């Protein structure tokens, strides 16, 4: 893309730079601004070495969020406060975060350390007295390959003792928060359009029919970098107001497609409606990724193993889509996918929101994911079980499984009378019979036979969980 002026605050100081808005922030920092504190390890969101913190005004006030700068395009800095490790402390004046890591021997080679510092900065600037579960969630996306995590955990414990955000956010960075409001909040150029209303979206779709639709860019960012190709035009749907709400309506809970997954999995209304979605905070990607990755992106990357896709397919959710003429249509998620990475979505159609029908009495949705890491990993298989129980009878039981076919597939497991009290051996037989129906591939996440075995295990685990017999596992 052509270079354009982009205005933001960098470590508290206002900057207007001329840059290609699709350039990666890690490259801007390291190669052009010579700020090499931010490191680049994996280049695809996995290691956390490149973590920076982005500050902006949200409904709750000024919020700092950790983000992987290897997946963050410079265009997304417009109107934000970017904080890097250089802004938190320097060699002559280390911050209390850096001191705690040194005090507790949480550093050896130091390559991962700036990323840990920035994840700590994002956590402690928002929540000075987190518990250790909050700390673990904040560090999900940070890998250390030489020191290990004990010293880093102890550093967190030391910081919990500080009990104040003033000590975490340097005055120079804090003082720019109000000035951030005076900057235009996002880009609108001939090559990068950010529609806010449906009318603006329709105009953008009509004027730029070949533009790449972008949301959190956690999927697209990896593929742009791997292929060495960047789009010439983008329509950024992340500010669409129709896609940024969570609302209960007559037909169910409406969740905006442009909302970041981290906001969704922490939202009280969502958790009351479909508690299973809360599991994604521990099992999907990392804090840095969920802070920007959207629900719409998770559904529309059309991965056969998307975590939200599996849960929402099982919950019989629908998606509301709009086209360039403003025409709306609602599609059932179970029939939305037509093949590997293929959907019923037509060119120029955008997913606006997801609608989740209410759970009926006795209905539960259970989610399981088996992968090589507990978070920050795509699953070998994932599955969600939808069971309705009346008294002791199972009156409905379906299971949606990802990772065993080109799309998420849903099977009806209730082909005979079933009760919560049937012997586990009978459920094992149902699991084995289901595993014989799937034809998975072998790849780096597991062989076909391993995946088949997992299918059988998931069926039994869901049953034990949903029948309240989990202790027999
Ligand atoms: C390190 C890492 C770990 C990950 N771990 C997981 C994981 O554990 N589980 C998992 O499921 N995924 C995981 N992912 C994949 C990814 O983060 C998610 O799928 C994410 O939700 C994608 O959302 P996004 O907003 O970043 O999408 P983008 O990258 O912006 O877009 C993805 C696709 O969706 C399209 N799109 C986006 N929004 C819309 C819309 N509203 N309407 C129509 N099309 C749209 C885009 O055009 C693009 O084709 C991981 C990714 C990374 C980098
Ligand atoms: S370089 Fe590894 S997450 Fe960005
Ligand atoms: S200190 Fe060397 S990788 Fe963490």
TrEMBL record:
<dbReference type="GO" id="GO:0005506">
    <property type="term" value="F:iron ion binding"/>
</dbReference>
<keyword id="KW-0560">Oxidoreductase</keyword>
<keyword id="KW-0479">Metal-binding</keyword>
<dbReference type="InterPro" id="IPR005107">
    <property type="entry name" value="CO_DH_flav_C"/>
</dbReference>
<dbReference type="InterPro" id="IPR036683">
    <property type="entry name" value="CO_DH_flav_C_dom_sf"/>
</dbReference>
<dbReference type="InterPro" id="IPR036010">
    <property type="entry name" value="2Fe-2S_ferredoxin-like_sf"/>
</dbReference>
<dbReference type="InterPro" id="IPR036318">
    <property type="entry name" value="FAD-bd_PCMH-like_sf"/>
</dbReference>
<dbReference type="InterPro" id="IPR016166">
    <property type="entry name" value="FAD-bd_PCMH"/>
</dbReference>
<dbReference type="Pfam" id="PF01799">
    <property type="entry name" value="Fer2_2"/>
</dbReference>
<feature type="domain" description="2Fe-2S ferredoxin-type">
    <location>
        <begin position="4"/>
        <end position="88"/>
    </location>
</feature>
<dbReference type="GO" id="GO:0051537">
    <property type="term" value="F:2 iron, 2 sulfur cluster binding"/>
</dbReference>
<dbReference type="InterPro" id="IPR012675">
    <property type="entry name" value="Beta-grasp_dom_sf"/>
</dbReference>
<dbReference type="InterPro" id="IPR036884">
    <property type="entry name" value="2Fe-2S-bd_dom_sf"/>
</dbReference>
<feature type="domain" description="FAD-binding PCMH-type">
    <location>
        <begin position="185"/>
        <end position="361"/>
    </location>
</feature>
<dbReference type="Pfam" id="PF03450">
    <property type="entry name" value="CO_deh_flav_C"/>
</dbReference>
<dbReference type="Pfam" id="PF00941">
    <property type="entry name" value="FAD_binding_5"/>
</dbReference>
<dbReference type="InterPro" id="IPR002346">
    <property type="entry name" value="Mopterin_DH_FAD-bd"/>
</dbReference>
<dbReference type="InterPro" id="IPR002888">
    <property type="entry name" value="2Fe-2S-bd"/>
</dbReference>
<dbReference type="InterPro" id="IPR006058">
    <property type="entry name" value="2Fe2S_fd_BS"/>
</dbReference>
<dbReference type="InterPro" id="IPR001041">
    <property type="entry name" value="2Fe-2S_ferredoxin-type"/>
</dbReference>
<dbReference type="InterPro" id="IPR016169">
    <property type="entry name" value="FAD-bd_PCMH_sub2"/>
</dbReference>
<dbReference type="InterPro" id="IPR016208">
    <property type="entry name" value="Ald_Oxase/xanthine_DH-like"/>
</dbReference>
<dbReference type="InterPro" id="IPR016167">
    <property type="entry name" value="FAD-bd_PCMH_sub1"/>
</dbReference>
<keyword id="KW-0274">FAD</keyword>
<dbReference type="GO" id="GO:0016491">
    <property type="term" value="F:oxidoreductase activity"/>
</dbReference>
<dbReference type="Pfam" id="PF00111">
    <property type="entry name" value="Fer2"/>
</dbReference>
<protein>
    <submittedName>
        <fullName>Xanthine dehydrogenase, iron-sulfur cluster and FAD-binding subunit A</fullName>
    </submittedName>
</protein>
<keyword id="KW-0285">Flavoprotein</keyword>
<dbReference type="GO" id="GO:0071949">
    <property type="term" value="F:FAD binding"/>
</dbReference>
<dbReference type="InterPro" id="IPR012175">
    <property type="entry name" value="Xanth_DH_ssu_bac"/>
</dbReference>
<keyword id="KW-0408">Iron</keyword>
């Amino acid at each position: 893309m052509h270079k354009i002026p982009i205005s933001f605050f960098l470590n508290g100081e206002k900057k207007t730079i001329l840059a290609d808005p699709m350039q990666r922030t890690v490259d801007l920092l390291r190669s052009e601004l010579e700020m090499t504190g931010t490191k680049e390890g994996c280049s695809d969101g996995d290691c956390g070495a490149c973590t920076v913190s982005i500050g902006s005004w949200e409904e709750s006030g000024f919020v700092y969020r950790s983000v992987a700068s290897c997946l963050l395009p410079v265009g997304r800095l417009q109107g934000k406060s970017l904080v890097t490790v250089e802004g938190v402390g320097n060699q002559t004046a280390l911050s209390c975060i850096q001191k705690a890591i040194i005090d507790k021997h949480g550093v050896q080679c130091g390559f991962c350390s700036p990323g840990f510092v920035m994840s700590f900065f994002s956590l402690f600037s928002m929540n000075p007295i987190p518990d250790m579960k909050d700390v673990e969630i904040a560090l999900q996306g940070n890998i250390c390959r030489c020191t290990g995590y004990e010293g880093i955990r102890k550093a967190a414990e030391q910081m919990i003792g500080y009990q104040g955000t003033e000590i975490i956010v340097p005055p120079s960075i804090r003082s720019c928060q109000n000035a951030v409001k005076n900057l235009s909040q996002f880009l609108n150029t001939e090559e990068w359009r950010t529609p806010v209303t449906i009318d603006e979206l329709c105009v953008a779709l009509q004027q730029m029919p070949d533009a790449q639709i972008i949301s959190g860019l956690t999927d697209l960012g990896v593929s742009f970098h791997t292929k060495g190709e960047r789009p010439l035009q983008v329509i950024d749907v992340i500010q669409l107001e129709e896609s940024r709400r969570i609302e209960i309506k007559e037909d169910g809970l409406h969740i905006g497609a442009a909302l970041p997954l981290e906001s969704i999995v922490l939202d009280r209304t969502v958790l009351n409606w479909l508690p299973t979605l809360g599991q994604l905070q521990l099992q999907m990607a990392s804090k840095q990724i969920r802070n920007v990755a959207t629900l719409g992106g998770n559904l529309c990357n059309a991965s056969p193993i998307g975590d939200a896709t599996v849960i929402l397919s099982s919950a019989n959710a629908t998606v509301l889509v709009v086209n360039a003429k403003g025409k709306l249509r609602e599609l059932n998620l179970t029939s939305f996918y037509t093949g590997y990475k293929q959907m019923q979505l037509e060119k120029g159609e955008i997913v606006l929101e997801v609608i989740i029908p209410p759970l009926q009495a006795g209905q539960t949705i259970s989610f399981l994911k088996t992968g090589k890491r507990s978070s920050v990993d795509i699953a070998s298989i994932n599955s969600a079980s939808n069971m309705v129980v009346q008294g002791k009878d199972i009156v409905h039981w379906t299971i949606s499984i990802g990772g065993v076919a080109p799309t998420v597939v849903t099977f009806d497991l209730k082909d005979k009378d079933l009760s919560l009290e049937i012997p586990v051996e009978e459920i094992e037989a149902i699991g084995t019979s289901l595993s014989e129906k799937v034809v998975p591939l072998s790849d780096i996440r597991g062989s076909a036979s391993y995946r088949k075995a997992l299918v059988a295990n998931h069926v039994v685990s869901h049953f034990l969980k949903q029948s309240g017999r989990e202790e027999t596992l």
